[in-house]
Design a protein that fits this description.
The complex is a heterodimer of chains A (281) and B (431). Chain A is mostly helical. In chain A, 44% of the residues lie in helices and 4% in strands. In chain A, the strands form 2 sheets. Chain A has a two-stranded antiparallel sheet with strand order 1-2. Chain A has a two-stranded antiparallel ribbon with strand order 3-4. In chain A, a hairpin with a 6-residue loop joins β1 and β2. In chain A, α3 crosses α8 and α6 packs antiparallel against α8. Chain A is extended. Chain A starts with a helix and ends in a 6-residue tail after the last helix. Chain B is mostly helical. Chain B has a single domain, classed as Cytochrome Bc1 Complex, Chain C (Up-down Bundle). Chain B contains 16 helices and 4 strands. Chain B has a two-stranded antiparallel sheet with strand order 1-2. In chain B, α3 runs antiparallel to α9 and α11 crosses α15. The longest helix of chain B is centred in the middle third of the chain and has 30 residues. The radius of gyration of chain B is 24 Å and the shape is globular. Chain B starts with 13 loop residues before the first helix and ends in a 9-residue tail after the last helix. In chain B, 43% of the residues are buried. Classes of the chains: A mainly alpha (281), B mainly alpha (431). At the A-B interface, α1 and α9 of A face α4, α5, α10, α12 and α15 of B. Chain B: It holds the Pfam family Cytochrom_B_C.
């Protein structure tokens, strides 16, 4: 009885799947999938290497400091960094005084209340504060950005596939005009007014205008030439750190754990072999 | 207990003797996983995975309890509390990544454990109850993993919950009210998050309880073995300790090396980037996918594309969506009937030439294809492939296995485990 019912259920499910298979194939022949501009012109991120790549990779503190400068002078006009505190910048190689100065001198003040009247007010930042956001709320952010919402950047390199390379590619990937081939093939896929063509962005048209418009937009303190590619790379490295601040601890603990386990496994192997010596198995 | 030659627990001193007379817990452990449990001497490395699954559960419970100390089950705070764990809690990044990847490794280990059972016929008499309890554990694991994935309240958490609970709305008449009852609202929200957290904390202990039953049921007939031939005499077995504790210790080392390599050097490899975006009910991700261990079942769900009805009348009896849901649950529930579908008296796939072909060239490829297709967008080629693979999956268990059991001519079995191992016949002086 069990086998009879099973047989009938099996014939039903497999049969419906095979009918579905026929249906899918007929459907695909009758109405082949229409290619889309996103499908054909979207590019995968460039294969860019970073010093923190790989199991031995470490952050380059100079690069992170340069990236912070790019963030604070360019990106932070629109993008928040809500999960990072000023005190975290100690990890970039700044001492206590420098962190205090960074917090105090940040261009946006920290929301607070007036201690006398209780009215909303602002005050200069201290190391314990989170990085203040450029807009007080989502409505204000959208109102200032043509109804587009600039995403928080704290986790952006983990929230996109191949994140660091994606951020880098997106920043240098803007194209003034759409490829002629694209417009020829997809006349309806013209970039709408107010958007900008960028083949690394999922739907090709991004609301953000090219933020890194020219070389030397930022003046680096360490004398590095601030080309567009250099700035893009430095800020991508900085945003990798904001998303994964404990990466160096993680990798060094990982090596310690691996070495311990390799020794443990070797000993376990030897005891296994010695216990079983006289037992054929 | 199973075999008359099993070692007996002898308390070594006055204290253990005192304990043994009042609560023989050390005796229980000795008989369960100590020298008092005789095990076939010919187990291969596939028999390590039961113990490894137990270790994986312990890792999940220990890391999970610590995470729960810092986690905050609120739609506004959950995402940030996970980031607080990652950034500010001492070694929080380690606890969280270990828990996140521990779930994946738990499934890897359990899948190998299940496929070992499928190949070596471990579900056959007299071990049906072990298998049935194992399927219960598997279902509980899936529920636990799903609810755990919702807790960080990222985009995939939210939309995964939306899709999975949406299955219930496919049930005719009562579906939508049932879904709202389960969620405590019209969509996943604070009520759903709270109950998922509660259940996610509860279910692992239920799993631990069912594991005790699973191991208890195992100790009635004793472990199976790669030949599938039953134990006949003492020479066929070795005591679990020290023989298999040593072998499991080595297996555990290899398992932990793999676990540590992923957890410390590629912790997000098995996850989805979208879950690092806070849940937003107003923005649907371009492409909702479950965690990798659910992909084959997700592919089965999506493979049903036509309604079942009376041809040429337009009357629909079962909608494609409902059929997909039934098939997805059915694809796991059919495992409950496996001991009665595969009626071949030979357990091990080694001695079943036809079964072995269908296992390696049918079942395994179909599951690989389903796993791959489950992660793909619904383009024609992936739908076609998953329809073929899903059709095979159901046919394999429900149609092919019963027929194979009937028509197959198994290879000759060795007379005993000892003979299979040493080549010499078993000396049965006592028999």
């Amino acid at each position: 009885m069990v086998r009879l019912i099973a047989f009938l259920v099996g014939v039903f499910f497999s049969g419906m799947l095979l009918i579905g298979l026929g249906d899918t194939i007929i459907g695909a022949i009758k109405e082949p999938a229409v290619p889309t501009a996103e499908h054909e012109f979207h590019k995968m991120p460039l294969a860019e290497k970073f010093p923190h790549d790989g199991p031995l990779g470490k952050y380059n503190k100079g690069q992170l400091q340069r990236g912070l400068k790019v963030y604070s002078e360019v990106c932070s006009a629109c993008h928040s960094l809500k999960l990072v505190s000023f005190r975290d910048f100690a990890a970039l190689g700044y001492n206590e005084e420098q962190v205090k100065a960074l917090a105090k001198g940040w261009k946006t003040e920290v929301p607070s209340i007036n201690p006398e009247t209780g009215e909303p007010a602002t005050r200069p930042g201290i190391p314990a504060d989170r990085i203040p956001s450029p807009f007080p709320n989502e409505v204000a952010a959208r109102a200032a950005n043509n109804n587009a919402l600039p995403p928080d950047l704290s986790l952006i390199t983990k929230a996109r596939a191949d994140g660091p390379a994606y951020v880098y590619s997106l920043l240098i990937g803007y194209e003034e005009t759409q490829p002629a081939e694209l417009l020829k093939k997809f006349p309806d896929a013209k970039t709408p007014d107010g958007l900008h063509y960028n083949p690394y962005f999922a739907n090709l048209n991004i609301a953000m205008a090219a933020p890194l418009a020219a070389d030397d937009q930022v003046t680096y303190d360490d004398g590095t030439k601030a080309t567009k590619a250099q700035m893009a790379k430095d800020v991508a490295a900085f945003l990798t750190w904001t998303a994964e601040p404990k990466m160096e601890n993680r990798k060094s603990a990982g090596w310690a754990a691996l070495i311990f386990l390799i020794i443990f496994t070797g000993l376990a192997w030897m005891s296994y072999k010695s216990i079983w010596t006289d037992k054929k198995h | 207990m199973s075999f008359p030659w099993a070692n007996e627990y002898k308390p070594q001193n006055a204290v253990t003797k005192w304990v043994d007379e009042r609560l023989p817990l050390p005796r229980l452990v000795y008989n369960a996983v100590g020298a008092g449990y005789p095990v076939p001497r010919n187990l291969n490395y596939f028999w390590n995975f039961g113990v490894l699954a137990g270790v994986a559960l312990v890792i999940q419970i220990v890391t999970g309890i610590v995470l729960a100390m810092h986690y905050y089950a609120s739609v506004d705070g959950a995402f940030n509390s996970v980031e607080h764990i990652m950034r500010d809690v001492n070694a929080g990044w380690f606890i969280r990544y270990a828990h996140m990847n521990g779930a994946s490794f738990f499934f890897i280990v359990v899948y190998i454990h299940i496929f070992r059972g499928l190949f070596y016929g471990s579900y056959k008499a007299p071990r049906e109850m072990i298998w049935l309890l194992g399927v219960v554990i598997f279902l509980l694991m899936m529920a636990t993993a799903f609810m755990g994935y919702v807790l960080p309240w990222g985009q995939m958490s939210f939309w995964g919950a939306q899709v999975i609970t949406g299955f219930f709305s496919a049930i005719p008449l009562v579906g939508e009210p049932l879904r709202q009852l389960l969620l405590g609202g019209f969509a996943p929200d604070q009520a759903a998050l709270n109950r998922f957290f509660s259940l996610h904390y509860l279910l692992p202990f239920v799993i631990a309880g069912v594991i005790i039953l699973h191991v208890w049921a195992l100790h009635i007939p004793g472990s199976s073995n790669p030949t599938g031939v039953s134990v006949k005499a003492e020479q066929d077995t070795v005591p679990f300790h020290p023989y298999y504790t040593a072998k499991d210790g080595f297996g555990l080392g290899i398992f932990l090396i793999g676990f540590v390599a992923i957890t410390f050097f590629a912790p997000n490899l098995l996850g989805h980037p979208d879950n690092y975006i806070q849940a937003n009910p107003l923005s649907t991700p371009a492409h909702i996918v479950p965690e990798w261990y659910f992909l084959p079942f997700y592919a089965i769900l999506k493979a049903f594309t036509v309604n079942f009805g009376i041809p040429f009348t337009g009357i629909v009896l079962i909608e494609a969506k409902l059929m997909g849901v039934l098939a997805m649950f059915g694809s796991i529930l059919l495992l409950f009937f496996l001991p009665w579908l595969d009626t071949s008296p030979v357990r091990s796939g080694h001695y079943r030439p036809l079964f072995r072909k269908f296992f390696w060239y049918g079942l395994i490829p179909s599951l690989v294809v389903l796993t791959y297709c489950g992660a793909q967008p619904p383009y024609t080629q992936w739908v076609v492939l998953s329809q073929i693979a899903a059709a095979y999956y159901f046919a394999h268990f429900l149609i092919i296995l019963p027929i194979v059991s009937r028509i197959e001519r198994p290879l000759p079995l060795p007379n005993s485990i000892t003979e299979a191992v040493t080549g010499k016949p078993l000396q049965t002086a006592t028999a």
